[in-house]
Amino acid sequence: MVDRYLEDGIIEGRLDDEAYEQNFADAHPPLDQHEAAVAADRCYFCYDAPCVTACPTAIDIPKFIRQISTGNLDGSARTIFEQNILGGMCARVCPTETLCEQACVRETAEGKPVQIGLLQRHATDHAMQRGAQYFARAAETGKSVAVVGAGPAGLACAHRLAMKGHKVVVHDSNPKAGGLNEYGIATYKSVDQFAQHEVDYVTAIGGISIVNDSRLGAGLTIDGLLADHDAVFLGIGLGGVNALGVDGDADDAGTNAVDFIAGLRQADSFATVPVGRRVMVIGGGMTAIDVATQARLLGAQEVTIAYRRGQENMNASSAEQDQSSSKGVAIRHWMQPSAVTKTASGSLAVKMEFTAMSGGKLAGTGKFQTFEVDQLFTAIGQTLASGDEIGSIVVEKGRIQVNDELQTSNPSVWAGGDCVAAGEDLTVTAVAQGRDAAESIHAALTA
C-alpha cells in the first residue's frame, strides 16, 4: 500500500493497483445468455404495461424482452434504439428502481421486478459490439442544424435529425464528446470507455460532424449559428455551480463535485487522484452520492454526506443511497453548512447547523456541530454556465424556458436536457427531449 502526502490530509495513491481495479470494476456486470433468458422469462408481457409509461423514452419494454426470450437480440436492440438511441448508457445509469422496475407488475406482486435495465444492456451491448446499424439516413433535405452540446440530449437530437436526412454539426466545449456520460457519472457505472464507443455508434449513421473545444461565448454565438444553419438545438447542460453561501475565510475550501468526477473519469491512473483522509460532501442528489462513494473507493477513511432535509427528500434513489452506505459512506440528514474555516493544521472546520421543518418551511434550529475534514465537496445543484452566451433567449431560475415543442423564445432555436426548465437531470429524460426536439425541428423545416 502506498501512502504519499501531497498536503495536509490529502494523499495520493493510498491503495494498490489490485484494490483500485476491484473498487472501480463494473458495478452491474452484464447478464450472460442463460441469465438473460431466465430474467426475460419472468416478464408477464403486460398489455398496456406500466413499465412503458414509467420510461421517459417510452421504450416498448414487453416487446424487447419478448424478443430476447425468443433469441431475437437484433430485433430487441432495434426496438430499444427506435425510442432511445442511447439505450446502452441508459441501461447502465438509469435509476430503473424508481422508473420502469418500480412500475413492474412483478415488483408490485413480489417485491422483485424484472431486471429491465440489465436486459436492455444485454440487447444493446449485442448490437453495439457487432456494430449493427438499424437505421439509415433519408434522402438529403438540403437543411442543416447546429447542435450545441454533445451530451445525451445533443447526441439523441443529432441522430434523429441525421436519420431524417438533415446535415448536423455538433459543437461541444469539451475535448471529447459525450457530455455527462463521459465526464459526469461515477466511473464504476460506465467502464471500458463505453461513452466514447456509444458516441461512435450514434454518429455512424452519417451526416453528423462534431467540433470539439467549441462553446457559446468563445467565438460561437446563436446569431452566428443561425446565419450558417436553418435551426439550432441547445443541449448545453448546466455548467455553473451554485455557491455554498456560508460564512468563513476559506473561499476556495469547497471543491466542485462535478469537476472532481470529471477529473477522476479522465485520470490515467486512480492512484494519481488526490483524496482526503476525512471527506465531507454537501448535497443530496446523484452527484453527491457518486462523489462520496468514489472518495471511499479511492481510499478515504471517513466520508460523510450532509443533507439539509430527510432521507425521503433526497434526489438520489434509495438504492443508490444504500449502495453508497454499503461502501462505508455515512449519510447525515437534517443539517446544513453554516461556516467553513481553515484550521491551524490546514484542515477545514465545517460548522453545520441542524435543521427542522417549521411552519411548512425548512429552518435552522440554532444547534450546531463542527466537523474537521481534509476535503469538502459541494454538490448542491447547478445552473447555466456564465460563459454560455445564449443571446435574448428567455431564462428563468437558471434554466432555459421552452414550450411543449421544446422551442425557446427564439422560434429558430430548440433546447433540451438539463439546461431546460422541464429537465429532470436524468440521462434518459435528456435523450427523450433531444429526440422529441428533433422531430419538432424536422416538422418546422419541412413544413
Task: Label this structure with key terms.
447 residues; alpha/beta; FAD/NAD(P)-binding domain; Fumarate Reductase Iron-sulfur Protein, Chain B, domain 2; 3 domains; five-stranded parallel beta sheet; 17 helices; disordered N terminus
Structure description:
The chain is of the alpha/beta class and 447 residues long. The protein has three domains: 4-25 and 241-382, FAD/NAD(P)-binding domain (3-Layer(bba) Sandwich); 33-130, Orthogonal Bundle (Fumarate Reductase Iron-sulfur Protein, Chain B, domain 2); 144-237 and 384-445, FAD/NAD(P)-binding domain (3-Layer(bba) Sandwich), CATH 3.50.50.60. The chain contains 17 helices and 20 strands. The protein has helices at residues 17-23, 33-41, 50-54, 61-69, 73-83, 87-93, 100-103, 105-110, 116-130, 152-163, 180-183, 194-203, 222-228, 257-266, 286-298, 318-326, 427-445; strands at residues 4-7, 10-12, 144-148, 167-171, 208-211, 231-234, 240-241, 254-256, 275-276, 278-282, 302-306, 329-332, 335-342, 348-358, 361-373, 375-378, 382-383, 395-396, 399-400, 413-415. The strands form six sheets. The chain has a five-stranded parallel β-sheet, with helices on both faces. The longest helix is centred in the last third of the chain and has 19 residues, at 427-445. The N and C termini lie far apart (65 Å).
How many H/I helices?
Answer: 17
**Strand line-up of the largest beta sheet:** 5-4-3-6-20
The CATH top-level class label of the largest domain: Alpha Beta
Helix proportion: 25-40%
| CATH level 3 topology of the largest domain | FAD/NAD(P)-binding domain
CATH architecture of the largest domain: 3-Layer(bba) Sandwich
Rg value: 23 Å
Tally of separate domains = 3
Show unreliable segments. Answer: 1-5
Q: Judging from the principal axes of the Cα atoms, what is the shape?
A: globular
